[in-house]
Structures are given as structure tokens and as C-alpha cells.
Give the backbone structure.
Amino acid sequence: MSFEAPRGAVISIGNFDGVHLGHRALLGRMRELAEAAGAPAVVITFFPPAKMFFTGADFLSTAQEKRMLLEEFRPDRVVMVPFDDEFRETTKEQFLADLGRLEPRAFVVGGDFRFGRGRAGGVEDLARLAPVEPFELVSVDGRPVGSSRVRELLAEGRVEEANRLLGAPYMAHGTVVRGAQRGRTIGYPTANLELSPRKALPTGVFAVTVEVPVQVPTGPSSGAGADLPSAAAGGSAGRERTHLHGGMASVGERPMFPDGSPSLEAHIFDFDRDIYDEVVTVRFVRKLRDQVRFGSLEELKAQLAADEAAAREALGRG
């Protein structure tokens, strides 16, 4: 194993699953130290997260979602290490030797950070290579913030509380695929996202935002004067340009049409473009209700109209 990263960097190492408030504090400090020293900032992280590998727990962030979240801290390099059987056998000394080749300026890690086969290495071992700033757990309402707690809240549908611990709305990033297109027949077409079955998702109906790639004009009207955002919404200028829309999403089994696997279906407000095969980002803002089975399509349509009104109010887009 070797880490491809700039030498002399301030390095932060961790699973960073979900990039919650504790991670954000740690990564913010990495950025501060790097800027003060005029040094590169490097994040070394792992996918799948160690806990998922060892226990089968669902993950909060896919590898791509994690990169998107880490972008906020403007790292010069993100090293995504595949956590597999081979990596699990990496000894403490091997891990340290690989880090040492980077000639690190400093480390910023969680105070309980462990590494190497059998979790043999810790903060005191990193200090053999460079100064270490260990970060203790961040607490909210007297309870430590951690990825496991966020997963618990999502499983209970408590997305607003989960968002408090994350410091941002929980995201799901995926490709829009063709579904049964039943929503079109009742006036509520949906974008059906293709997601990993190991992605942690809340179930129910939610007010959401949906980040959709901009459709770039072609022909004589394109170019100067085109009405496009100046950069990707919430990201760096290097990412694809996007527009942010309000919407509502249903997650889980489809009670009226129980013929498939759990799904995330988002209805985007005031939007009628074909976005099949496009990659979009859904962010959960507020839970509106649990999923229920209705006696008829008319009852379902009436409830969807109420859901839309509630979602628009939650998003301030009424």
C-alpha cells in the first residue's frame, strides 16, 4: 500500500462517514493549520467504512458522496483507501512507513483514532512521524455526535435531528432510472434514484431539495448571455453546473404498488424536464409523514396534494 499525496502536508485520517459535526470541526482545523503553514491539506479516508466492513452496518455516505462532502474543506488531495481483506492485514508499522514517505507536517485525527491490524496503532504512534492534534468527541444536547447515532436517527425517520448532528441536510446522490412511471398518471411524476442497498435511508415522505444538472443550451443561443449558475450549487467550480429545486420524496416500500424493492422517488416542484440517466442529489429537509396504504388512487392524490403544500411550506417555497 502507498499513499499518493503531496509531501509535507497537514494530514487528517478517518472514516468520515457522513461528515458530521465532529468530522467538520476536525477537518476545519486541518484546513486552518495547512493555511497557516502554507502547506497542502490531505485527507486520508476509507471506503467502505471500517464498521461496515467488520459488522455489515449500512453507510451514510457512498465514496462519491464522501468526496462531495469533503470538498467543502478544500483538501489538496483526498486519498480514498479501499477497506478490504488485504488492507485489514496492514500492520501498524507498515501503515506508519507509508505515511512516513509523505513527510507529514502534522496530523489532525480523532482522539480515539486507531489503525493497523488489530487496531494496534494510535495517536502516540502517529506522533513518531509529526505533531498530532487529537480531537475529542463533539457533543450535542449532552450526547456525543457519531455516525452510529446519525444512523439510528435516520432509521427512526428523525431527519431533522440527524441533520443537526451532520451540520447539513442528509444527502442521497444517484442516477435517475426508469420506474413504472405511475406517478405521471396521477399528476406527480417522480425521479427514481438508483442507490446502493447498503445506503442508510430514512423511510417515509419528506420535504427535500433536489440538485439537478443544468441543461446547457446548444446552437446559436448558447455561450455569452446564457442563463446559467456561476458554479455548481454548494460545490467547487470544477463540478458540473447545477440548479437547486424544491420537492418531496417518498422512501421505502411503495404501499400502493408493492411489487418492487425499496426506493427513493422524488417529485420535483415546477419541473418537467426529462432527466433519465442524469445524476442528481436529494437532500432531506423535514419528514412529512409515514408511508401509508390508501383505499383508492383518489385518496392518494388528495394526500399528495397535501404533502406538496406541506413540503413547500417547509422549504419556504409556498
Notes: The first strand starts at residue 10 and ends at 13. The chain has a mean pLDDT of 88. The chain has two domains: 10-144, 169-315.
